[in-house]
Structure prediction request, 360 residues.
Amino acid sequence: MSLQYAILAALTSKPKTGYELSSKIEGSIAYFWNASHQQIYKELKSLDSAGWVSARDVSQTEKPDKKVYRMTSLGLKELKAWIAEEAETPPAKDALLIKIFAGHLVPARILIEVLNKSRAQRMARLKRYEEIERTYFSSPSSLPDDLRFQHLTLRRGIIFEKAWLNWCDETREYLKSRIH
Amino acid sequence: MSLQYAILAALTSKPKTGYELSSKIEGSIAYFWNASHQQIYKELKSLDSAGWVSARDVSQTEKPDKKVYRMTSLGLKELKAWIAEEAETPPAKDALLIKIFAGHLVPARILIEVLNKSRAQRMARLKRYEEIERTYFSSPSSLPDDLRFQHLTLRRGIIFEKAWLNWCDETREYLKSRIH
DNA sequence: CGCCCCATGTAAGCAGTTACATGATTAC
DNA sequence: GTAATCATGTAACTGCTTACATGGGGCG
Prediction:
């Protein structure tokens, strides 16, 4: 259900094709959401038949034809109404936490390896986010409205990756103490 | 798939019924995972037919009969192997972030209300986690192994709820500046 | 010659939610 | 009497993943 609203949110700035939604969203909604192209095409169809978006067929000569989707006024209305609803707080659902929870079952050095790999992924994300912030959001107050809100979600990414790194380090300290 | 491992992780300390798994997990795995009782009964059946857990029927006179599940040695072996595998980093998938992303579409005071409600939920969790830490984990070094690992996942919860609160405050400051 | 980019889908299946169902005991 | 706790499920459905499919153009 939320994916439909994520798609609508991605269509607020300008109309997009399913292909763009599934690949070019890098740098905005991809900070906190993902979906396969199959699922996105499906949701676009269902949004279309609900009248929340409308498709326009565009023929291309050197590339395959495509369908450009734009949000309708009904879609905008529904999106606004949904935004104003209370959001419930989802659980983390990160497999790494299950692994740590049951971590006493395996040797500490194995867990450290698993943790280090996760840490490296988190660090890579943080670097990417910080790079994006430096490049596009260096002076937030001069940005147009929609980009200022995008920046807020990027900020969330930066704050959280840092929190992850802190937790990884704290956890790693304990695991190291179990080896020596 | 991960739910099966979450169930196995919950069964490491002692055998449990589906009912206990779906309700009494409060205070451990519930910090970062959830599931309906229907789904848990389904997964227990599938784990049973795979030989990763085994069920024992227990008749009770004053309560309904129950099935107590314990992990088998095969289940333990598989859980250990899974823990040692690299964990990929999932996206946040929190609807609040979609709402903020498209936040320029609604009046700032509406968004502040939505944010405040989320913030209150986060704050309540943090208080709960801190209370649990004070009560059960005040001197971690004297704890048995499995509880020390449980404590690590609780620490993650505490660190993350604090990070959420920081982000909420940062975001609220910006939203307030849009009203005045 | 093979691979990547563009572009959109079908089909099968698994994972998870929501609604419905039963029924005894204990506590207010 | 009515609500909560204990205890386990079926049925229908939605959401999402994985595998498979097509086909032209550009690049090395």
User: Anything to note?
Assistant: Residues 17-19, 23, 37-38, 41-42, 60, 62-67 of chain B lie near DNA strand D (CB under 10 Å from a C1').
